[in-house]
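Try this one yourself first.
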């Protein structure tokens, strides 16, 4: 029996988009991003449900992606291929920050014997663009491209603290500040106060708000114009350092590393 013709009206953002908005491209990207760590292999019906597309539309996008080499299939299952990494590599290779950051992360991790990372803000989340892992201290593995809610992370708070007031207002109005652990900040006023302190002192400390047992510190990375473009952090298990030890012993090291990276970044394209 033939499937019904495509009838989905599109999302609110699609319906209100500018004349230059290419709906088919947006839907193709939605199909790609429907695959994640929790759903690495999906059927046609699952992809259609995750994206809000009809089965007929989802099928066309999936088989186009198969032809292009970004998706593979067997039986009723579909999954992403390593070629998808080319899309992210294009971003990383065009971003001098990632190359400049790596030696700083390596020195920082070697000095403190802790994992270090660098991330940028993307929508409501931070996205990891560099990492040196010394030991695994979270229940999930962190790799390049891993995303976490910005409000619950030290790097995210550094980046949020640097936003213009109107951008921060937009972020907070559109973000569900659902606490992830009993230690989390759950109200907007409390988060605003914390962000104001971070902006004033120049670093952030998050104590077990993303995951129990995890403490992290972050400092801002600035470009040649002084704008905060990324955040650098170190994460550790709560049993290794008290919060006071983190402030006294690790903060100066992390802040110095972030400043050194900022100085390197300032020399780019002079």
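Now uncover the answer:
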């Amino acid at each position: 029996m033939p499937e019904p013709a495509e009838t989905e009206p599109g999302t609110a953002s699609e319906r209100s988009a500018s004349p230059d908005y290419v709906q088919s491209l947006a839907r193709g990207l939605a199909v790609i991003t429907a695959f994640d760590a929790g759903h690495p292999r999906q059927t046609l019906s699952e992809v259609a449900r995750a994206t809000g597309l009809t089965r007929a539309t989802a099928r066309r996008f999936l088989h186009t992606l198969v032809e292009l080499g970004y998706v593979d299939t067997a039986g009723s299952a579909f999954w992403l291929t390593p070629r998808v990494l080319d899309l992210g590599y294009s971003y990383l290779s065009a971003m001098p920050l990632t190359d400049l950051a790596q030696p700083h992360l390596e020195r920082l991790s070697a000095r403190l014997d802790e994992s270090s990372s660098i991330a940028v803000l993307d929508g409501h989340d931070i996205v990891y663009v560099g990492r040196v892992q010394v030991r695994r201290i979270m229940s999930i593995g962190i790799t390049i491209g891993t995303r976490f809610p910005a409000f619950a992370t030290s790097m995210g708070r550094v980046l949020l603290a640097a936003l213009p007031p109107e951008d921060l207002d937009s972020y907070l109005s559109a973000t569900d500040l659902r606490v992830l652990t009993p230690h989390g900040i759950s109200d907007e006023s409390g988060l605003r106060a914390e962000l104001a302190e971070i902006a004033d002192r120049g670093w952030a400390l998050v104590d077990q708000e993303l995951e129990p047992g995890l403490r992290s510190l972050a400092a801002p990375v600035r470009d040649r114009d002084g704008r905060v473009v990324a955040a650098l952090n170190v994460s550790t298990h709560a049993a290794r350092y008290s919060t006071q030890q983190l402030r006294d012993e690790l903060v100066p090291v992390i802040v110095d590393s972030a400043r050194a990276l900022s100085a390197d970044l300032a020399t780019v394209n002079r």
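Discussion: The first strand starts at residue 41 and ends at 43. The CA atoms of residues 189 and 221 lie 26 Å apart.
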